[in-house]
Amino acid sequence: MSLVETLDRLVAFESVSASSNLALVDYVEALARASGAEIDRVPSETGEKAALWITLGPRDVPGYVLSGHSDVVPVAGQAWSSDPFRLTERDGRLYGRGTSDMKGFVAVCLALMPEMAAAGLARPIHIALSYDEEVGCLGVRPLIARMRARGPRPLGCFVGEPTEMGVVVGHKGKSAARLTFRGRACHSAMAPQGINAVEYAARFIDHVRLSAEGLARDGARDPLYDVPHTTGLCSVVRGGTALNIVPDACTVEFEYRAIAADDAGALAGAAIAYATEVLGAEMAARDPACGVAVEPLVDYPGLEIDPRADLALLAKRLAGRDHHAKVSYGTEAGLFQALGDVPAVVIGPGAMARAHKADEYVTRDELESCAAFVRRLIDVSR
Predict the structure, then answer these.
(1) What's the total number of domains in the chain?
(2) Could you say which of 27, 142, 158, 355 would form a disulfide bridge with 101 (CB–CB 3.0 to 4.6 Å)?
(3) Which residues form a coiled coil (predicted)?
(4) Alpha carbon distance 300, 280 (integer Å)
């Protein structure tokens, strides 16, 4: 099928992260089998989702990986001009959920599988299709473990997040958690007899704010990022029931996004230590039933590859471009590098500025540029 026909089929699968992706995986697997590919399905623990490792060409020599995720973000509450799960073309733009992030890239890889199969590849091209990227890069982890078990280690990985086909050599790492402050309720007229969970949460929020301000003021810098320093913030707070009740519960969700010079996990760990060892201990000293519970939410490493590395230079050559950039959002590329010991860059059609919002789109020209990139990869893999 053509690029657009393949994208049309992919968009029609409502593969939001909260739902199963098995119908989409079955479709992709059927396409891969029709091209004579070797397929390894990696199911989730629940069996409700699966990842795919697809190999075209010889499996016993190192090759290259084209990596994408199958899940998309929800459309609830968004004012779309057309059905988000039906590809709609207007003025050369192809609208639909996931067109930029990142079914456009996946469609190109799938549509070109027959060309890969017919090329007589000397080095394999692998297509990695994961799940639950949008909720913490979860599904790619067992996929990378399967990749390592199959061997040999790939030469490099191209992660097709939307970059307008620019070469991205770095992204920030992220660590996030949800803290629940458990206090003791009482009538607000007797406030000193209670333990105010909201006020303890507020002290934590201020701690994170001061930490983030210090990083912005005095921390390390990387000018290739649009936000050139590590960031931290609290973004979701829920607590209290009524004005005249001292609140006994408050939850706070927070994150750090770190450039390579910093460690997002260490920063988040320090904030959690303050919450549990200082604030929680103070609460428990007043009432042993009170304190702070911690729930990890997201933890993925950043990506950092030398722009002069072989893979980065190859990506520029395949893309026909001579520049590179870094992005503040996260991708699965850092996990291929950290867990798989595989160098990675990020490059794909579409733009992140269009993703996660109503009327998401990719252009025909961007799909064709991506197809040219993959065809050149086929050529160098012969």
Answers:
(1) 2
(2) 355
(3) none
(4) 27
